[in-house]
Amino acid sequence: MAILSHLSILHLLWAALVFCQYEDYDFEDEYGGEPDHQLPYYFNPNTQVEVPHFPFPVECAKECFCPPAFPLSMYCDHRKLKTIPNIPSHVQQLYLQNNHIEAVPAGPFTNVTFIREINLSYNNIKFHMIDHGVFAKLSNLVQLHLQHNELEEFPFPLPSSLERLLLGFNKISQLPRNALEGLPNMTMLDFCNNLLDDSVFKEKPFSNMKNLMQLNLCNNKLQTMPPDLPPSLQHLSLENNSISHIPENYFNRLPQITALRMSHNNLQNIPHNTFNLPNLLELNLGHNKLKQVFYIPRSLQHLYIEGNEIENINVTVMCPTLDPLNIKQLTYIRVDQNKLTSPISTYAFFCFPLIRTIYYGEQNVTVNRPTQLRTPVFRRFLTPEEFQEAEDNHETLNQETEEDHQAEDNYFHPYYH
């Protein structure tokens, strides 16, 4: 009995101890509150305390924002800045567009070594306010945006690493001799909406740019075709100039051209085989003074000749012979605002069996009185087999775009969208 009494007492003491432990235990210590040894984390770009470890320093100018998810980018855009803040050495993408910046001094770039992209568009920068060589020392710079500024001259020197240079919407009227030399990696060059005239071509500034793929010269003061362009060129934009003539055999040195835009010029006659190019996909000659059509290459898919003075579309000129083994790829023609009185001959559908749309719109047959043809828009409906093939091609295109969108961004500029 004594032994049982002792066991009972021990059991009661153990039960009381367990109860007291649960009574004193605060469940919020584990589930509801912050542990004493760990403070809540808030990102502060001005301090290194409590910053998680990265293989590169997390640093940001106080005027800007450096997202933790993109620590190599510094966003200083749309902040009414008048000066460029100091740039941390690890930054690779710098966004300073839409500010009131007037100068580009060397000071803020003193420690910069890895920067690949700078966007200084939509500011008030002038050429003489750019420190000489400030860009040239950035040996990893690939893309430079300077469009929509007040530049009167080309901002040279530039680093040999540069691939894309956007200078549209400035006041550039000349290209200094050798300004574009030493840029072997340049693939896209945008000069649209400047004050360039034919005198800039005397030194043949583009001839040695062996990798140039896109050249935008739209909205300038050109009267002749730019000479000695590199054979690597694929996209050429010359719209809104005063060009009146394309020299015969001009494009023989440009076999890679896939898109040519020359709308809003003064073209009157096109030599017959001018556009006999194996890779041409898009041709825009709208709003010129053309009276006749011309030869259409097999590869061409989209043709824009609206806003001209064409009275009759001679399909035989566009397609002199039929080759069932090498059918022409044309699918879309825009011919509105011409002087047509009748639709295109049905012979066109033998020459261009893939054609789906012909946009006639309104025609300027009589002065100040636009008229419409009986069929303002011709649309060819696809057979079920053609529709399925088109859907398959569309899906393939979308898939390629998903995979290659970064590469496309490297070469396509909004002027070409």
TrEMBL record:
Subunit-level organization: Binds the alpha(V)beta(3)-integrin.
Please identify the protein, giving its name as recorded.
Osteomodulin
- Role noted for this protein: May be implicated in biomineralization processes. Has a function in binding of osteoblasts via the alpha(V)beta(3)-integrin.
- Give the residue range of the signal peptide: 1-20
Question: Which keywords does UniProt give here?
Answer: Cell adhesion, Disulfide bond, Extracellular matrix, Glycoprotein, Leucine-rich repeat, Proteoglycan, Repeat, Secreted, Signal, Sulfation
Please indicate which superkingdom the organism of origin belongs to.
Eukaryota
Q: Where is this region: Disordered?
A: 389-417
Query: Which locations, inside or outside the cell, does it occupy?
Result: Secreted, Extracellular space, Extracellular matrix
- Single GO BP term: cell adhesion
Gene (UniProt): OMD
